[in-house]
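Project standup — Tuesday

K.O.: blocked on the structure for the chain from last sprint. Re-posting the sequence here as requested.
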Amino acid sequence: MDDRALADLRRLVALLQNSTYQNRSLLLFGFADNYGGTRLNSIVSAERAQAVAEQLQRHGIVPSLIKGYGKALPIASNDTADGREQNRRVEVWLH
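H.V.: unblocked you, prediction finished:
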């Protein structure tokens, strides 16, 4: 895990351990860029979300839902390396 990801994880754990958010459902959605086939990207995005879930579980935080969406719903263009990097993500939602 790189330094940026570790810092993001620390901030997320601190937020989720706040009593304001402890009774909320935690949803993790994984995404991929458009490289690779649909099946592979579906697997990769689910594994990406699962990896975040495992890190959170080490801190006693258990997600209600973990789901991969593959290359669906990009937030940036897949035509550039930067855009593809942005699309390889996990979104954390509180419900």
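K.O.: great, moving the ticket to review. Strands lie at 26-30, 65-68, 90-94. The chain has a mean pLDDT of 95.
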